Amino acid sequence: MAPHHRLPRLAVSYGRTRILRLTVLGGIACATLLMIMQMGRMWFHAGEGHHHHDQQPLSPWKITDEGLVPVKSREELGREMMEYVRSLPGLKGEVAVLSKRVRVVETKEGSVGEGKIRRVGKGFLEGHGFARVDLTLAGEGGGNGVQQQKQETRLPIPGVVEVPVDVPREEKGDPAEVLFGVASTYERVSRDDFEIVRDWAGFLTNHSAGRERKEKRRSNGAGLLLALNKATEAQVIEVKARLWQAGIDGTVFAVEERTGKDSDRYKGGVYAQLFQRLLMSRFGKGEVGAGKARRWFAVVDERVFIPDLRKLVWEMDTRFEERGEWLMGLPTEQKDWKEDEDGKQLTYGGGAVMMSPSVLDTVGQLMCFQAGGKGGGDEATIDSNWGEALYKCLEQERYIKMQVLVGGGGYLPAQNSQGQETSGRPLVMHSDGESFSSPGKGHLISNICGEECYLQRFLFADSWALINGHSITAYPRRIEIQTSSKKMTQQKGPLNKGGGSKVAEKVVVHSVSVGEEQKIVWRGGKTKTWRLIDAEVRDDGKEVWQAYVNGRGIGSKEEEKSDVDSVIVLVWEL
After folding, report:
1. Where are the alpha helices (DSSP H) in 232-333?
2. Percent of the chain having pLDDT more than 90?
3. Does residue 104 lie in a domain region?
4. CA 456, CA 437: separation in Å to the nearest integer?
5. Average pLDDT of the chain, as a whole number
6. I need a labelling partner for 397 at 20 to 30 A (CA). Which of 18, 162, 163, 258 fits?
7. Are residues 298 and 351 in the same domain?
8. Which stretches are transmembrane (predicted)?
9. What would the DSSP string read from start to end of 113-172?
10. pLDDT band at 487 (very low <50, low <70, confident <90, very high)
11. pLDDT tier at 559 (50, 70, 90 boundaries)?
């Protein structure tokens, strides 16, 4: 009987042991699974940029400085991409689209130097080709018996490419040393929803990679005096509000209407009043930044854009003594130069003139400039040749040479070269110029990687090249980087010393390019280039979207022409 009494106890004991063992094993399995998932997340964030997008784990989170934050799903990103491409001007119907996410990474190689090309070890395409999509919206093109195509709702998921960018230069000037004067009209300033104000904010505020993403734009210390010809009080108030919203430290005033020889029909009258207001600010008469010790006073065309104001100020401060009498021009393109009566090259600044305080004082006393000068003052010609009128008037009083600063990519008469394909970043650009289109939009990339990476050049392993914020070019496979034998140095002295110079004696040229000039050369085959047409800052400054377009049938004799419009979208992220 004893064995029969012990059997239930053994069964119960065995059952409890089994439950205990299963519980322990289950706990170990859960802990192991959690550990594997955590390691998978770490692997995903450490190596996401090195894998094809189809091989990436579908993690709904990403690690940032603010902790774990949700990321967009592939479908959401694809739809957002399609909406962005559809909003681009000039694109309709069937379009070839390539999208890329660009990660900015640190490099141990250091800066390659301004004007040089950064090599990237991987290809730009990396197995990702163009996808043809139809931008036709639902309900369009369905008439006359034509079968309507299915509406495209999202684009293929963008691949990932990593690029190392140059670190910011240590030599930087203070933008607060400069007060800018600009003459324009309300109609021109308000065009395209005040796009020009957004361009000005690119060099008059602190919106760059160095500031907090959620911080409101603030002035970098530089000031703006804006003269509006024939503007009403309501228009002046509206423009003031736009400057304030953009973070620009600015003063706006309407040019007073005059009669007789000083009528506002004369552009000299507009600029004479602008110079008088600059003088008032210099002596603390209630203008923008009144009482600030400005070292430089600038008068520039409304379409002038300065990609790196700190660098420009540093170049001026280190070359010209503080108490000297200096008049400086900042020409960029060949059209900014002209021949004088001796066949020499001459410039009056190219729409951008810097003055020391002593020169500004002299201009304020010039009767020839105050009287109005020559030429009409209508909207089309208000700023056509004010630099020439200023210099010729100043020349009547005293002999002052025009000091000319030319940066990377700028035209030099002695070298007959110009363009972003051969050099670095210029000191001054024109938004309506021949070589640099939409500089304000291109400069938005500084929100991600600072001013140094705007117009930085990258050459990928598959012979694709990127000029950041300017263009993307596909080269034939047989290419090489050619270094010019002309070494451009950061010298203090002028370039046109001695006889035989192509530049007039009244002009002193200084080149601020650093290092040896590099360009890409190829043998055989044709290139294909996509040029920047749009850029946007998104996700509270954490992303910058760029759109580069190659139009159907457009291109030079050296470029391959396509039978369809194509667009490359780059999403830059930290």
Report:
1. 233-245, 267-282, 309-319
2. 30
3. yes
4. 16
5. 77
6. 258
7. yes
8. 20-44
9. -TTPEEEESS-SSTT---EEEE-PPTTSS--TTPPPPPPP--PPPPEEEEEE-PPPPS--
10. very low
11. confident
Which of 572, 461, 481, 485 shows the shortest CA–CA distance to 116?
481
Answer with the residue of higher pLDDT: 297 or 78: 297
Distance CA 347, CA 325 (A): 19
- pLDDT exceeds cutoff 90 at 244: yes
Q: Distance between CA 278 and CA 179 in Å, rounded? A: 8
User: What does the CA dihedral 478, 481, 484, 485 come to, rounded to 10 degrees?
Assistant: -90
| Residue 569 zone, left/alpha/beta (φ > 0; ψ -120 to 50; rest) | beta
The encoded tokens of residue 221 equal 């210390």
Q: Is residue 203 part of a domain?
A: yes
Place of tokens 């030429």: 375
| DSSP per-residue codes, 197-245 | HHHHHHHHB--STTS-TTSPP-B-S-EEEEEEET--HHHHHHHHHHHHH
Q: Are residues 154 and 216 in the same domain?
A: no
In this structure, what CATH number is given to the domain that contains residue 201? 3.90.550
- 62 neighbors 68 (Cβ within 8 angstroms): yes
| Span of 140-149, 222-231, 239-248, 530-539 with lowest mean pLDDT | 140-149
| Whether the predicted pLDDT of 206 surpasses 60 | yes
Determine the pLDDT at residue 433: 56
Residue 452 identity (one-letter amino acid): E
Q: Where are the alpha helices (DSSP H) in 398-553?
A: 439-442, 446-449
Summarised one tens digit per residue, pLDDT across range 500-546 is 468 888 888 887 765 567 788 888 788 999 999 999 998 888 899 99
Q: What value, to the nearest 5°, has the Cα angle with vertex 362 and ends 357 and 365?
A: 130
Full residue range of the structural domain in which residue 530 is found:
72-167+526-573
Q: Which residues in 345-354 are b (16+ Cβ under 10 Å) and which e?
A: bbbbbbbbbb
Q: How many domains does the chain have?
A: 3
Single pTM value for the model: 0.78
C-alpha span between 549 and 474 (Å, rounded): 13
The kind and range of the H/E element at 1 are none
